[in-house]
Specification:
The protein is α/β, with parallel strands linked by helices. The chain has helices at about 5, 15-30, 50-55, 70-80, 100-105, 120-125, 145-155, 175-180, 195-200, 205-210, 220-230, 245-250, and strands at about 10, 30-35, 40-45, 60-65, 90-95, 135-140, 155-170, 185-190, 215-220, 235-240.
Length: about 250
């Protein structure tokens, strides 16, 4: 029997602004979903070197956006520093995932490259020969550096702008704690390593933590799954496609 057939809850641990759409899609697929946000997003104050990179966008051959949040915070940074987004029209743009690509199109820019899959290796393969190319990656301050390292190893000159960060929530609502103490939760979902770390940090009762670590979890990708295992979760599943849609498909078989 699956989680859906048992009618147990699927817990969403994403930031609240991301969880709403995910919850609606889960419920459309017949799951019962409940949000327990483990993290929230916060804009970072940019450094002078980072602002200089923004002011000289046309020096880059390629800009890579890895999430819709990176698109939003990038546009916000341009506006705050009076830098026209049109400067980015001279630069080729790569997007990781259709949601990211759509966010780029919504602000009037063209997506030149998008990998069929979602791993760093897939993106590096999609981009082809990057030796000597100047590449800009605007993303989260807590994002993995795997993509940067892969491209650098392939000969690219990579610059990073840390636009935003994730902050762990400080507490969990009493109702959420009661749900976790009951047997109504069938699975936890994690879309980032920071969500895993933040969620575990909210479980300050040792007995409850031990119980929760036995609940099956579905992670958006290998890096997040690795963190979940390191935190002590005993039943860790990884989405075959590294998106929230991939998480939903994986949930259908648990």
């Amino acid at each position: 029997m699956t989680i859906k057939s048992k009618q147990k809850l699927v817990v969403i641990t994403r930031a609240i602004e991301d969880g709403v759409d995910f919850q609606l899609r889960l419920e459309k697929e017949g799951f019962k979903a409940y949000q327990i946000p483990a993290i929230r997003l916060a804009r970072r104050k940019m450094t002078k070197p980072e602002i200089k990179l923004l002011a000289n966008l046309d020096q880059f051959d390629l800009c890579i956006f890895t999430s819709r949040h990176s698109v939003f915070f990038f546009l916000e940074a341009l506006l705050q520093n009076d830098i026209p987004k049109e400067h980015l029209r001279k630069v080729k743009i790569a997007a990781v995932g259709e949601v990211t690509a759509e966010s780029i199109r919504e602000i009037g820019l063209q997506v030149d490259s998008m990998p069929a899959s979602f791993s760093n290796a897939d993106l590096a393969k999609e981009l082809g020969d990057v030796a000597g190319k100047k590449i800009l990656i605007p993303h989260s301050a807590v994002a993995s550096r795997d993509l940067e390292n892969t491209l650098t190893n392939n000969g690219a000159k990579v610059s990073i702008i840390n636009l935003y960060t994730t902050i762990a929530e400080e507490s969990m609502e009493p109702e959420a704690l009661q749900l976790l103490e009951s047997d109504t939760v069938g699975c936890l979902t994690f879309a980032s390593s920071s969500a895993v770390t933040g969620f575990v940090g909210l479980l300050r009762d040792a007995i409850l933590l031990k119980k929760v670590l036995q609940i099956p979890v579905v992670c958006i990708g290998p890096s997040t799954a690795l963190t979940a295992g390191q935190k002590g979760f005993t039943s860790v599943h990884t989405a075959s496609v590294f998106t929230t849609d991939g998480i939903i498909e994986t949930l259908k078989h648990i």
